[in-house]
Amino acid sequence: DTAVSQTPKYLVTQMGNDKSIKCEQNLGHDTMYWYKQDSKKFLKIMFSYNNKELIINETVPNRFSPKSPDKAHLNLHINSLELGDSAVYFCASGTGPGGEQFFGPGTRLTVL
Amino acid sequence: QQQVKQSPQSLIVQKGGISIINCAYENTAFDYFPWYQQFPGKGPALLIAIRPDVSEKKEGRFTISFNKSAKQFSLHIMDSQPGDSATYFCAAFGSGTYKYIFGTGTRLKVLA
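^ Those are the sequences you sent over. The predicted structure of the assembly is below.
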């Protein structure tokens, strides 16, 4: 059973389009995250939700909008995609402060 | 103060050798220090973690050394194997927050 799953795994799209990435976890965790990993492998947190409540929003352009319909899901919607949005996006879930985080397999977004 | 500095950026080690990756932090509020291992095309996975009340933690061939006064911690991989070839990230986490700060990553290659 996959603990943290993301769809799609690959996403290729044109500049200006709107796209969504979905994430689901079956670990029963209260906290979920979105990370962006750029071409240099830098891993940076974007958002975190705890019990469906947004608790971290790291100076991410407002073109990015997370949404947590329930504790097991955290989706990421991106409007007006730009070339610089090309990266691998990882969803993660965790047990809370100071706890282990479990990462999904990533979604490689390529904006042409 | 929120940075975690990681070195080296890349590392090549012979099979059976010792791999050492170092990290330094500034924020004394950090109190949980995990190391993550990432294979190509996969999400990061927790390898080993330490809290500042101990100076060393060992799990199999992996050891974290922690120097609280110097605000440094390191990962030692003993008897390095080709299967250890991956990117390693240190991270730091502060109680009361949900945010991990990741180091910039070290690409380890173990030669057969």
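Chain B has a mean pLDDT of 93. The interface with chain A takes residues 31-32, 34, 36, 38, 41-46, 49, 87, 89, 93, 95-100, 102, 104-105, 107 of chain B (CB under 8 Å).

Shout if you want it in another format.
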